[in-house]
Specification:
Blueprint (H helix, E strand, L loop, with lengths): L1 H17 L7 H8 L3 H12 L3 H19 L5 H7 L5 H12 L3 H6 L3 H6 L16 E5 L2 E9 L5 H15 L9 E5 L12 E7 L12 E5 L2 E9 L5 H15 L10 E4 L12 E7 L5
Antiparallel strand pairs: 1-6, 2-4, 2-5, 3-4, 3-7, 6-8, 7-8
Helix pairs in contact: 1-2, 4-5, 5-6
GO molecular function: DNA-binding transcription factor activity; sequence-specific DNA binding
Keywords: DNA-binding, Transcription, Transcription regulation
Pfam families: GyrI-like, HTH_18
Length: about 290
């Protein structure tokens, strides 16, 4: 019964994440869970730590926070309406109560560490155990990179700097150039001050000296295992662990001396979190 209830609550969470613009009534949510509405709210809060209403509002505010941080041309009132608030004032009160910053303050200087703390309860593993993995020959790719060194909770600050560099120089247009992330360590097993993540964009020429700290790099050519991850970045680790734990041994493959890397096919400020698409590459040793 325990596993059955957990699966039902996950179904509800997935439905909410895919339908943030819809009316999410108690009758509809309890129907998806196939539970009496008189018990559903207690079961949901027992598994998630919040009510279904709070869960939906947090997910809407999470989406709104990315709009604020990375889409400066969208008005606050439009972001508020998208998040199902009737006014900018109501949105501002809820946002500040949740993140301890007003929407305008967050837009100017986001406090990402406080932001991350509000979503810790959502970062539960989903036990991803199988997926379609292909082997490809990845072509050497010249990149502009900005190194993030420090807490994983502040990666978005570095990402914003890299976006600003792209816009200012035009050397790696976000619409026509591939965007990559290269994690040199696992955030769950690395001390925060030693965590390194390179944020990268495809370029055709070397990067000139600049005030952002962006420099030229390369993702080397070679065989890679690759698969597509759909949804939140929070669950990518489960997919990667499956490849390391099972797929490599089952397919008699060895690893190459370069970290895994991600190709972001869309972005968190452009689509709902559940619609994110990330191609993951794990470098493999050459075959004799």
């Amino acid at each position: 019964m325990h596993n059955s209830l957990e699966k039902r609550i996950k179904l509800v969470c997935e439905y909410i994440n895919h339908n943030l613009n819809e009316s999410l009534t108690l009758d509809k949510m309890s129907g998806i869970a196939a539970l009496s509405k008189y018990h559903f709210h207690r079961v949901f809060s027992a598994y998630t730590g919040v009510s279904v209403t709070q869960f939906a509002q947090l997910q809407r505010l999470k989406r709104a926070s990315f709009r604020l941080a990375f889409e400066k041309d969208i008005r606050v009132i439009d972001i508020a309406l998208e998040a199902s608030f009737e006014s900018a004032e109501a949105f501002s009160r809820a946002f500040k109560r949740t993140f301890e910053q007003s929407p305008s303050d967050f837009r100017s200087v986001p406090q990402w560490q406080e932001w991350h703390s509000r979503f810790n309860f959502l970062n539960q593993t989903h036990g991803e155990t199988q997926m379609k993995v292909d082997i490809v020959e990845f072509a050497a790719t010249k990149i502009a990179l900005l190194e993030h060194l420090g807490s994983p909770d502040t990666v978005y600050e570095t990402a914003k700097k890299f976006i600003d560099w792209r816009k200012e120089t035009g050397l790696s247009p976000i619409k026509t150039s591939k965007t990559f992330g290269i994690p040199y360590s696992d955030p769950q097993t690395t001390e925060p001050e030693k965590f390194r993540w390179d944020i990268c964009g495809e370029v055709s020429c070397d990067v000139l000296d600049n005030n952002y700290g962006v420099k030229t790099g390369i993702i080397p050519a070679g065989r890679c295992a690759t698969f597509r991850h759909q949804g939140s970045y929070d669950n990518i680790r489960d997919a990667i662990c499956y490849v390391y734990r099972e797929w490599l041994a089952e397919n008699n493959e060895e690893l190459r001396d370069f970290p895994c890397f991600f190709h972001y096919r869309n972005f968190i400020h452009e689509v709902d979190e559940c619609d994110l698409q990330t191609d993951i590459y794990i470098p493999l040793a050459a075959k004799d």
